[in-house]
Each structure stands twice: as C-alpha cells, then as structure tokens.
Amino acid sequence: MSERGRGPIFSAVLAAGKGTRMKSNRAKVLHTICGVPMVNYAIAALEPLGSQRTMVVVGHQAEEVEAVLPGGVEPVLQKQQNGTGDAVRVVLEALEGEEGTLLVVNGDGPLISDATLADLLGRHREAGVGATVLVAELDDATGLGRVMEDAGVVRIVEERDATEAEKRVRLVNLGLYAFELRDIRRAMGLVGSENDQGEVYLTDALEIIGRESRAVTCLLKNPQEANLVNDRAQLALAEEIVRRKILDAHMRAGVTVRDPVSTHIEATVEIGRDTVILPGTFLRGATRIGSDCVIGPSSDLLDTVVEDGATVEHSVGRGAEVGPGATVGPYSYLRPGTRLEDASKVGAFCEVKNTVVGAGSKVPHLSYVGDTTIGEGANLGAGTITANYDGKNKNRTEIGDGAFTGVNTSLIAPVKVGEGSYLGAGSVVNKDVPPGKLAVGMPARAIRNAPHRVKEDTNVDGRVDGTETEGKRA
Fold it and tell me: Per the record, which residues fall in region N-acetyltransferase (predicted)?
C-alpha cells in the first residue's frame, strides 16, 4: 500500500438534486423505501466504515431533507444545483485543511451495502491511486454514465453527452468514488462546465486525476446493488428488493410469513419469534409485535404495539397497544391512545379511540368507544356507543369492573357506569349509574339491583372463553 489511502476517512452523500424524472413535488431523496427516506440508506451503509465526518449535501428542499437525517451527520448546503462536481466543491470547502480519503456516494442509491463500500475503499487503498470509481456491467444501462478505462485513465461519459457508440457500452458508473483529498482538490480547480448542460461534472475530475496520478475502477460484485432510483418504476423495484430482504431477515429469526409477495413490513418494525403474519398485512413505522401472535390477514398496523399471544384480524391500528392474549377484529379500527389489557377483546366492526379496555373486558361488535376507561371483566353489548363529543369538548366515559351494557346502548359523556351495573337494551345514559344497579330507559334510570352474572369459563391459558352469558336475575 502506498502513502495514499492511509489517512482518515471522510464521507459525502450527494442529496441536493430535485429528481425531475420522479415527477414529484418532493425531493427525490425524501421518497421512502419501506418506511425509510431513501437518503438514509446510503448514510447507514457508510456508518460501519468509521468516517471521521459524514456530510450530506443538501439543496432542493434543504430544510425538509435535513429534517429526516439521522444524528451525527453534517448537512452542507449547495445553494445552486450545478452538478455533482459543484456539490463536491461544497464538501471540500467544509473539509478545508483536512487530509485523507473522501468517499462520495449518491443519495439515490438505497441498495448499496456496507460490504461494497468496504470493497471500494479496500481497492482504493491497495492500488494507492488518487481516485477509484465503483462500476458495474449491466444489460440495461439506461440513464447511467458509461465508463471508458485506458492505462490508468478513467473517463466517464454521461448518457446525455454520449455518442451512439458510447451508449452501447455496458460498463457503467454508479456514482460512488474514493478520492484522495489532495488529488480531488487539485482536480476540481481545473474542472469547468463546458458541456451541454452547463454543469460541473465530478466525472471530469476523475479523468484529470487519472492523467495526473492514476485512477482505477472497482467492479461491483452484486449487480442488484446497481439499481439507482431515478423514476417511480425504479423506486418500486428498489422497494421490492429491500422489502424482500426485510421479510427474509424476519423469517430467519423465527417469524412465519405465509405470503411474502403480499406482505409489507417496513425496516423499523420489530417482530417476536413464532408470530404468524398472514397475507395482505402491512406493518409500518414503530410497530412492535411480540411472540406467538397472529397478525392478519389484511391488517394494517402503524406505530402499534401488539404483545405476546395477541391476535389482530382484518383490522387497522394507529398508535394503539394490544395487550397479551388480546384479540382484535375482524374489521375493527384502533385509533391513537387505545390500550387493550390482557385477554381483552375488540371484535367485529368496532372503532376504539383513546380508550383503555380492561383485562378480560369485551367490546364484541358494532361499537364506537372513544375517550373511555373500561374496567376489568366488563361486556359492551352490540351497538353500544359513547357519545364523547358535545360539539366543543371531548368528554370521558368510565365503565366499572364487571359492568354490562345491553344492545344499542348510548352513553352520553361525561358519564360513569358503576362497577357491576347493568344497562338495559336501547338505554340512553346521560347520568351516572351507581354500582350494582340496573338502569333502563331513555333517559336511563336505575330501577333495581343488577342481576348477577355467571362467571365465564376461563381457558387453560388464562384467556376468557368467547361465550357470552347474561346470567340469572337475583
């Protein structure tokens, strides 16, 4: 190894461009792949290499891009997007006085791996050259610069400037480089913008370095990583590849995914072993699934926690918590602030918002429950709803342990239903019901002591049996 390549490592991610081929109002690098902004994949691939400083060149929608960057990276502003060479000039200004190796990667290359970047750095150091460029042989090189290599000089011709003969070359530039800082500084001082686009090309600096101090190529081992994202079709392809990697990792860790083709799990999701994910399921954001759960089919969970042994079928969760052994669905909607305690149930066609459903309690079907606290062992009959909004305020409902509501009961908040109380079918409750009382009517009034409920059977695993019993009157 020569003296070149022995210094510290610095990294730059080029993320200033608009991405016109995306036909989007959003900067290209902000488009997500499996829930993660595209630019953050490149940053993550650089992390294991031990860069002293990692910079992200921002320009178009700079503030929005900066907002999604992980901690520890430095945004540097390219005021005018005047090409990749101009972006590197901005980086060099930020690295004034530093010496070492500069790794340059594109923010629109989400499939690049840390292993490939390590290969690029290793090739650069072993060759002892001023510049090394990562290249790939592709059957379809559309949109990529073609690589011409001859006796230590590497020349790259952008597709828009290429001749027909040059466009037939299959060796392409992937936009990833290793430069010695002293060489790239000198070369950038000689680069102009004499091309059809009037831009400063980083590839011109590569050719200059090759003539002065030699440049080499590093051939990509895994062609799949060469997939850059320039339009929506390429975005979909990249997401398909990343999604399959995520699914494979979960399956190897002990998760059963019945149909990987129809299952979408974002990169940030955690799943415990022996959980089964059924077809058509979407798990997104900060969702965490415990062990021995069944999720799906056709469930969509965002930022939702599902604890061990729970089941979510044909349902939607947004910022909710499903406790151990609880069941949800089919066709229910858990909104933010909802917590289902152990072995509780939210059944078919229910919407639950900002509510605690106590251990063993049931909201079996056709209910809206909002801003409510339900105690343990309560049962809400079909069609029970909480009228929590009075046109100005969201008011709370409290339902005590062991309470029972008949079908089509309306609870007009704020209201309390006492422990062990019964509400007759069709009751409209706008006043508190004392513990242990039976209330009926519209508006409901307490008329006698509530009937005793026969305790439901409990399964060996501690879950309450699904059979509902009305019990006998005292």
Answer: 254-474
CB atoms within 10 A of CB 116: 22
- Amino acid (one-letter) located at 278: L
Query: Nearest Cα to 241, choosing from 145, 135, 112, 108?
Result: 112
Q: Please report the domains of the chain, with CATH numbers, ordered by start residue.
A: 9-226 (3.90.550.10), 232-439 (2.160.10.10)
Q: How many other C-beta atoms lie within 10 A of the C-beta of residue 310?
A: 26
Q: Give the separation between CA 329 and CA 130, rounded to whole angstroms.
A: 62
Q: What CA–CA distance (Å, rounded) separates 177 from 135? A: 10
Q: In 3-state terms, what secondary structure has residue 47?
A: helix
Separation of alpha carbons 317 and 310, rounded Å: 13
Q: Quick check: 59 and 69 in contact, CB under 8 A?
A: no
d(CA 378, CA 375): 6
Three-class DSSP category at 430: coil
Beta strands in 90-152 (DSSP E): 101-106, 131-137, 146-150
Cα(457)–Cα(467) distance, rounded to whole angstroms? 8
Active site residue 365: yes
Catalytic-labelled residue, pool 124, 250, 365, 452:
365
301 exposure class (CB count in 10 Å sphere: 0-12, 13-18, 19+): buried
DSSP structure string for 223-263: GGGG---SSHHHHHHHHHHHHHHHHHHHHHTT-EES-GGG-
Give me 148's structure tokens: 């011409």
Q: How big is the CA angle at 138 (ends 133 and 139), to the nearest 5 degrees?
A: 160
DSSP characters over 80-92: S---HHHHHHHHH
CA 8 to chain CA mean position, Å = 33
Angle at 167 between CA 162 and CA 168, to 5 degrees: 155
The whole-number pLDDT of residue 456 equals: 57
d(CA 61, CA 5): 34
For residues 279 and 296, the answer to whether their CB atoms sit within 8 Å is: yes
Identify the burial level of 379 via C-beta atoms within 10 angstroms of its C-beta, where 0-12 means exposed, 13-18 middle and 19 or more buried: buried
**Is residue 352 predicted with pLDDT exceeding 80?**
yes
Q: What is the pLDDT of residues 111-166, one digit of tens each?
A: 999 999 999 999 999 999 999 999 998 888 877 778 988 777 888 887 877 888 88
First CA to last CA across the chain, in angstroms?
92
pTM: 0.87
**Calpha distance 364→340 (Å, rounded):** 13
